[in-house]
Amino acid sequence: MQDVTTTGFMRVIGRRGVPDWFVTEYFRVHETSTPEKHIVDSILNHGTGRPVFAQLIGEDTPHILRTIRELGKLPVAGIDLNMGCPAPKVYRKNVGGGLLRDPAKIDEILGAMRQEIAGLFTVKMRIGFDGLERFDEILAIVAKHKVDLLTVHGRTVKGLYWSEVDYAAITRAVKAVPCPVIANGDVINATKAQRLINETGAWGMMMGRHAIRNPWIFRQWREVQQGFPIFTPTLEDVRIYIQELADECCDASRPAEKQAGRLKKFLNFVGQAVDTEGQFLHDMRRTETMTELMKCCDQYLLGEKAARPYPDEPHRGLIARPTRETQQTCEL
Ligand SMILES: Cc1cc2nc3c(=O)[nH]c(=O)nc-3n(C[C@H](O)[C@H](O)[C@H](O)COP(=O)(O)O)c2cc1C
């Protein structure tokens, strides 16, 4: 996830029950692009011991191939193509989710990428641009080019991050392509992940925002699968998680209000499960410095509240404010 899956975030997640693999923030591909240094750093220095797939976004085939050769020098598990980013500034350039309007272009890009990638080649897509009209055609192209793994976010590009997830469409993808399919979209907790495996026939689940809110989700799902009691973090565990996010994801050389702003991006998600009324979200958004923000966290998460259980799903009606990507402002 852009601005989220950084080296520091991967480390913090890794300490709480690491996922089977990570996917990087996307590398933007265009005529003059070079792999962004901070994303390369996440591949080299995450230290979790898990494989990392490098994700690309672009539509210029020769430059996609050039970038694949550059990334091939790094210890990546494979290359992933982004066909889902819904930001208008992105899709208007016919990249990310914009590609879903142009199956002929997808055919060209996937064919060329398959030729270039000797190892694992994966694709992440939404179910369509504004409807499912081209879904089957695109799935046939994915199958034709022997993509090794397909992740399907069960929303259209126009559905952004909030429309209802169409899990039946994910089941359709599972039946249509020969490779494993990973289901994505509102997999809010381990119980739902397990249910969706049975319901959709998917091979696995991808967690995005829900792993920011609950970094124990991967551990909890393993416990469900193995029939062990599910770990329930306390609010004090959440406070420790927040401290690690501050230490690992906020640049201490930046002004305090910028650091606080960065931490709030994560807390927007974490706060969805802290109190039922959304008072923590309200108060933390109004702090200005790191010191104020941490004091606010202490107030809601420590003292007599410290031992309270942290629920494994968001409280009803509490929404995370739009982030840079969900505000549709990510530039390409
Ligand atoms: C802040 C943010 C950044 C994201 N960046 C990416 C990205 O770079 N590449 C990608 O494939 N998806 C990206 N996504 C989409 C998520 O991977 C995921 O598909 C989507 O949020 C739905 O899953 P969820 O309900 O588990 O969050 C991003 C989502 C958010 C909220």
Description:
The chain is α/β, with parallel strands linked by helices and about 325 residues long. Helix content is about 40%, strand content about 15%. It has helices at about 5-15, 35-45, 60-70, 90, 105-115, 135-145, 165-175, 190-200, 210-215, 215-225, 235-250, 255-270, 280-285, 290-300, and strands at about 20-30, 50-55, 80-85, 120-130, 150-155, 180-185, 205. The chain is globular. It starts with 6 loop residues before the first helix and ends in a 31-residue tail after the last helix. Bound molecules: flavin mononucleotide.
Quick recap of the structure?
This protein has helices at 7-14, 37-45, 61-71, 88-91, 103-116, 135-144, 167-176, 190-200, 209-213, 217-226, 235-249, 256-270, 279-285, 290-301; strands spanning 22-28, 52-57, 78-83, 120-128, 149-156, 181-184, 204-206.
Question: What's the helix-strand series?
Answer: HEHEHEHHEHEHEHEHHHHHH
Q: Which geometry do the CA atoms define? A: globular
The amount of helix comes to: 40-55%
Q: Which CATH C-level class of the largest domain is it?
A: Alpha Beta
